[in-house]
């Protein structure tokens, strides 16, 4: 299975958090190659659909892609070459962290700061939770939790919609075809894209 297919499959297999997100209609990422950069031409439209500040979304996408970039006039530019699928995966990760309520699964939330801590408050069910900030600098300087071409032992803690096992290691969500929830397995990392990783049983 090639890299793009792996990314498409990962998006399909994002765990269902419960509830309904039917009211959340997010445009697909519109990517344009521009020399050594990739432009996301509809970032402001995506941010509007999520009811979030576009610069906040832009910063989070930079973190997920592990790159630097600029935001101006509703468009973003990122250093490097990224496919629409990779940008969509970064947006999906943002939605899971900064938009979706962990209790009811609805997107009817807002970001607030309480006692210097960023919180996600749900206006549908009243739940609230802290949002964990992840430093881009620390990700660039610290040893990564996983690396391509290496083997790790992980516990499968979930199952994707197509039946693949899902594990978590540090900031990474790892998709492991053939593994079942509850298994403790040795895996070989094939690809890493931002905070998404794709592995096989070793």
Explain what this protein looks like in three dimensions.
The chain is of the alpha+beta class. It has two domains: 3-140, 2-Layer Sandwich (Defensin A-like), CATH 3.30.30; 143-201, OB fold (Dihydrolipoamide Acetyltransferase, E2P) (Beta Barrel). It is 25% helix and 32% strand. The chain has five helices and 13 strands. The protein has helices spanning 3-12, 43-50, 54-65, 84-98, 136-141; strands spanning 31-34, 37-40, 69-72, 75-79, 109-114, 117-122, 128-130, 151-155, 158-159, 165-169, 172-176, 184-193, 196-201. Strands 8-12-13-11-10-9 form a six-stranded mixed sheet, with helices on one face. It has a four-stranded antiparallel sheet with strand order 1-2-4-3, with helices on one face. Strands 5-6-7 form a three-stranded antiparallel sheet, with no helix packed on it. The two termini are 16 Å apart. Mean pLDDT is 83; it is low at 16-22 and 134-141.
Short description:
The protein is of the alpha+beta class and about 200 residues long. The chain is built from five helices and 13 strands.
């Amino acid at each position: 299975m090639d890299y793009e297919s792996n990314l498409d499959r990962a998006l399909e297999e994002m765990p269902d958090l419960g509830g309904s997100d039917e009211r959340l209609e997010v445009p697909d990422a519109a990517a344009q190659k521009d020399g050594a950069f990739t432009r996301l031409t509809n970032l402001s439209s995506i941010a509007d659909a999520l009811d979030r500040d576009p610069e906040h979304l832009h910063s989070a996408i930079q973190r997920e892609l592990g790159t630097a970039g600029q935001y101006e006039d509703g468009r973003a530019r990122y250093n490097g070459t990224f496919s629409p699928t990779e940008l969509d995966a970064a947006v999906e990760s943002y939605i899971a962290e900064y938009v979706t309520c962990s209790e009811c699964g609805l997107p009817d939330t807002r970001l607030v700061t309480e006692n210097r801590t960023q919180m996600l408050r749900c206006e549908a069910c009243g739940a609230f939770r802290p949002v964990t900030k992840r430093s881009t600098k620390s990700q660039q300087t610290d040893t990564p939790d996983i690396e391509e071409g290496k083997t790790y032992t992980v516990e499968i803690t979930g199952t994707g919609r197509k039946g693949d096992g899902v594990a978590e290691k540090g900031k990474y969500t790892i998709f492991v075809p053939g593994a079942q929830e509850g298994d403790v397995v040795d895996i070989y990392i094939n690809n890493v894209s931002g905070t998404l990783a794709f592995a096989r049983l070793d």
